[in-house]
Amino acid sequence: MTVRVNKSSFNIREKLSELGRKFGLKGSELVAAETVQEARDLVSAGRKNKIINGAMLIDQRHEGASNTNSNGHHTDRFRTQVSAMDQLVQTYQRVSDGPPGFPKSLKVTTTTAETDISASSEYISVYQKIEGQNLQDFAYGTSSAKSVTVSFYVKSSITGTFGYTVYRNDTQDRAINKTYTINNANTWERKIITIEGDSEYSISHATGDNWWNCWHLAASPGYGSDPAPTWANYDGNNWAGYHEQNGVVTTQNATWQITGVQLEVGSNATEFEHRSYGEELALCQRYYQKFEAGFNFINAYPEVSLSSGNQLPSFPFPVKMRTAPSMSPSTVTTSYDKWTASGSITREVRAVTTTSYWTFQYFASDNSSTNLAVDYLRGQVTESIAFNAEF
User: Fold this and answer.
1) Cis before 329 (ω within 30)
2) What is this structure's pTM?
3) Is the CB of residue 333 less than 8 Å from the CB of residue 363?
4) How many whole angstroms from its chain centre is CA 233?
5) In DSSP terms, which residues pair with 256 in a beta bridge?
6) So what CATH class is 79-285?
7) pLDDT (tens digit per residue) in 64-86
8) Which strand (E) or helix (H) includes residue 156?
9) Span 85-116, pLDDT tens digits
10) Quick one: fold of 288-388?
11) C-alpha distances in angstroms, 349 versus 61, 294, 313?
12) Which residues are bridge partners to 181 per DSSP?
């Protein structure tokens, strides 16, 4: 029996040309994706960057000025930590230098070099800590634990192999060590590091510093004596595993810069997620907020009687802070453009930590213990105030 099948005509030259069309590796994977979610995972569609201020746009503390605090924050959410280096002096500064699309970077410059890094307790690292509650989609501690990828741009006057560690400060401390190589001095290079999922231990759903991204600039041998190429329990000997190049610290005037930092779910590094300045600032203000001198409160409370110890109304922060903040300086004097009262009065701003939405408020006291009648007041701080809820 003969079966005849009719098929619509097609251009054979066009079909033959499609056979040679280049999809690329990821294009081929997208073509083979069986579900929409699988395709989204391949390109990390949607909001993706777990790093805050990865483009170094926000610098509330220093506003582009240099500082030498090796155990402190520099651009928002990025800090350094140093141990046992008695000679080292470095400057840290947000500078107007970066690869295309990144106008700012964090720059580390060694102004006084550390001549010997051999003691067991010496290291210096740049890092950002992340709250565990922001990483629950990693699915750690389950059979569905996901790989994640960190990517960044780096430039240094020193070439060689540098260490990158993820340290998890959790119920069970964990660590994994990776490296990246700077191939060309004083040249922006993009680095990509993939970190395998950890199916053994979960990440706490908490506001604590449960995930540390650590870029090592120097480490004595003891900190890398037992490196962890895959997730392992942290023991100090895998703090800086595989890190080789200490020249940024031991070389006078050596520099190291970073920007465009992104941490995302999946084994692929996608293009950097540029957020608006306002959104990035709000994310940073969860951890640090600054009010400049001259900040006005509100016109408040005609004919309010004050006795010793009165506190005037509270004012919520623009962004809820991670936890009850510390205030620096601890008390801030305010001025009033009208205060019709008799008696001796102290006027301050104080942090209030008794509510879940942290606030600050006026404090006014009548030191003579005489009730006072206030016709009108408007407070203005006479110095800047900083509120800190960092880890």
Assistant:
1) yes
2) 0.85
3) no
4) 24
5) 108, 156
6) mainly beta
7) 999 999 999 999 999 999 999 99
8) strand 148-156
9) 999 999 999 999 999 999 999 999 999 999 99
10) Immunoglobulin-like (2.60.40)
11) 20, 13, 11
12) 161
